[in-house]
Amino acid sequence: MTDSFRCHGCPVCNGKGCTDELPGMGGVNKNENFLLNCSAWKKLYEDEGGAKKIPSLSREQLMDLIRLAPVTGAEENIGWEEEADFYEDFFMTLHYSGIKLSVGDGTPDTKLVYGLNAIKTIQQERDRECRAAVFFKPYPDENLINRIAWATPVANHIGIDIDAYNIVTMRNKVKLEKKTATQIESIMKKIDVPFVLKGVFTRDDIELVKEAKPDIVYFSNHGGRVETRKGSTALTLKEAGPIVKDYCQEIWVDGGIRSRTDIELAHYYGASQVLLARPFIKNFCYSHQSGIEELLK
Predict the structure, then answer these.
(1) What is the pTM for the complete model shown?
(2) pLDDT tens string for the chain (297 positions)?
(3) In contact, 264 and 258? CB cutoff 8 Å
(4) Count of CB atoms within 10 A of residue 160's CB?
(5) Residue 78 to residue 6: CA distance in whole angstroms
(6) I need a labelling partner for 229 at 20 to 30 A (CA). Which of 30, 40, 85, 106 fits?
(7) For 125-258, where are the E strands, in sequence order?
(8) What share of the chain is helix, strand, coil (3-state, %, to 5)?
(9) Rounded CA gap, 157 and 193, in Å?
(10) Which string of DSSP letters, residue by residue, matches 79-140?
(11) 275 pairs with which residues across the strands?
């Protein structure tokens, strides 16, 4: 089964080993933003004076910050033999390593259902308190309302993944929408948990934040996997974080986070949740472990 993995298990996950591999773990434009996401945290840390300026966090503080970023497409992107088999084992491994969970969706609808069912299984068999942040693509509102109903039993946060609109093939296939502030405000009224606006990365996105005032702003460029402006989430957090903090209650960020210093830097710039996916996927594929000890060393 190892031979089928589309993650190459690179010693350092920095976007250089999977260039343009879509489906797969790579990104668009020769992994341009994937590479920038990874390199920008290190450069920003050095520019800010490193350990002389960025406070060190305890293990408990670090674990409170870490969450799995939403993941789907286990067959086509990861190389898992059966989509349905991936989520329960993956989520269980991370949950028992103390990592907060997220569920993503995709097409067909079964991808979302598999993730939701995996959380339900953990609740029933292991931990009835287990919940996840659940993210939906920006589908037409009727479709979103149905998905909210499916997710409510397991969700501690619900979000819309606005950067998914930039996946052109999916946008055309399932009619993704560029959501307005009015539409987002309407969705927020239909849920009883904090709402997350994921994929904030451009000037237009920041204007949308100002209008809609979501509970949580989530800086992301989809791991460098979508067509958007050139840049990194690290610099976006530094530059746009002070702007959006007056229009939300929390800031989350993902993209190229690979070490405890990356996490500490993200927290220093205002992130209350730091989300990762590729490092956890790599460790799970090759060792069936979460890799949290490697991350925090």
Answers:
(1) 0.97
(2) 456 899 999 999 999 999 999 999 999 999 999 999 999 999 999 998 888 899 999 999 999 999 999 999 999 999 999 999 999 999 999 999 999 999 999 889 999 999 999 999 999 999 999 999 999 999 999 999 999 999 999 999 999 999 999 888 888 888 899 999 999 999 999 999 999 999 999 999 999 999 999 999 999 999 999 999 999 999 999 999 999 999 999 999 999 999 999 999 999 999 999 999 999 999 999 999 999 999 998
(3) no
(4) 27
(5) 5
(6) 106
(7) 132-136, 155-161, 195-200, 216-219, 250-254
(8) 50, 15, 35
(9) 5
(10) --S-HHHHHHHHHHHHHTTT-BEEE---SSTHHHHHHHHHHHHHHHHT-TT--EEEEE----
(11) 67, 254
Report residue 140: phi and psi, to 5°. -55, 150
CA pseudo-torsion sign 98, 46, 201, 222: negative
Nearby residues of 24 by Cβ (< 8 Å), 6 or more positions away? 6, 18, 77
Half-sphere exposure of 194 (CA within 13 A, CB side): 17
Residue pair 136/161 in contact by the 8 Å Cβ criterion: yes
Question: Hey, what domains does the chain have and what are their CATH numbers?
Answer: 2-6+17-286 (3.20.20.70)
E strands, the chain, in order: 66-68, 101-103, 132-136, 155-161, 195-200, 216-219, 250-254, 273-276
C-alpha closest to that of 112 among 163, 175, 155: 155
* Rounded alpha-carbon distances, angstroms, from residue 102 to 69, 157, 262: 6, 9, 20
